[in-house]
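Subject: Protein record for review, amino acid sequence with backbone structure tokens
Category: Structural biology, sequence-to-fold work with a learned token vocabulary.
Format: Residues in single-letter code; tokens as whole numbers, each standing for a residue.
Body of memo: The sequence and its backbone structure tokens, given next.
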Amino acid sequence: MTTIELYPDDVHNQRTIRQGHPSDWVNREGGDYDLVVLGGGPGGLTAATTAAGGGHRVAMTEQRLTGGTCVNFGCTPSKALIRCARAVHDASRGAEFGFRLDAPPQTDFGSVMDRVRRMRSLSSSGDAVEVAEHAGAEVYLGHTRFTAPNAVEVEGRLLRFRKAVIATGSDPVVPPIEGLRTGEYLTNETVFSLTELPARLVVIGSGPLGCELAQAFRRLGSEVDLISHPRTLLPHDEPEVGELIRRRFEQEGIRLHLGFMAVRAGAGRLLALGPGGTRELPYDALLLGTGRKANVEHLDLDAAGVHVARDGVEVDEYLCTSNPNIYAAGDASFPQKFTHAANATARLCIANALDGAHRPARELVIPHCTYTDPEVAEVGLTPRRARNEGVAIDAYRLDLAKVERAFIDGEEEGFGVIYTRSGSGEIAGATLVAAHAGEMISELTLAITNQMPLEALANTVHCYPTQAEVFQRIALQHAEPQRVAVAH
């Protein structure tokens, strides 16, 4: 069986391992199942427990830690680190709120990371092996591979299935940089093992991971350089978003190298090529935030007749693979690689595979949020996506500085935009940049899912004073001549 190690070997990591991959676990002998789920991350756990709750005999397999990337190497530890960094930053803003410290706040990085590991161990308790078993899924730990169109093998145990779901998640992409050797760089899977704050951190990548951790480490005291081949931060969001975050990062002292490509690394120095020539950046730690790839290479998918595309398992609009009895959920097949997307697609797989729901994935309305400060959230049709799909939309916008709670809290940097389908007023999408955008975007997700008109949002009573009022105030503009046409 696979041996799981987390560094440092402290009480928190020992607890995480006991919960997610007990060293004394003994797999069952195998057998016949209504459903076999490959992967014990958010998508796999959701698929397995949903099916078991419906009365099906279910097996779930996991090679590493249940809870997957999100709990162990992604969402949970990164947000714990970001919260510590925000606390340090807030303490440095005392003059704005009428208090002074005798000295600038000093970061105890060892204590910060101890808390990160403790939060991870608490979170992983909800995704533990015993939790899945208690919910009715039979858990098998170890490497899983297909041996036939209706069978997998786990550590010598044969599991035959009527239906299966591939939910094996994704791995970090390591770019082809000359001199870059394993063990000499950090990814999301190793950065949370740090016990000492790197004095100089170089981050490659301007997506969510790169931006979140660049800001967090800068606030904790590192000198940070961020390199991005795209000329903007968060290049998949609306351009105004990236520009606002750029200004904030520069104010906080993050050195940005936009339009640069890392070409050589080693001996604590990175060479980057970009506009006007090359830059050599010294570092004590190098963090890669260069995207993710589906983790499906070692499943022997050919034996199951499952086709693989460039971005992962190939599925149709119902999330069914080329084998009609095998479905795929989450990062293994879905372009939106978020935990909540994995959960949603897993539930859809079960509905389609076991209940005959025949529901297409396009019905899912999936928001996303990047947890910088301010946070960036988007959902539905934004101008970029609307142009690609040839859909006409209208935009209604308001700056957070015009919302009382935002400027009272000293969090007025940001804005909200609601997009509606031209001619109908139906809410189609939203962009929100705000200190708590991730907490606020769900109201718009609900509206889009239920095809609500802007008038419904305008007529919804909101607590005063709250930052969420931004949505109602934007909606009230629907009756005003302030609508901005968006090209398509």
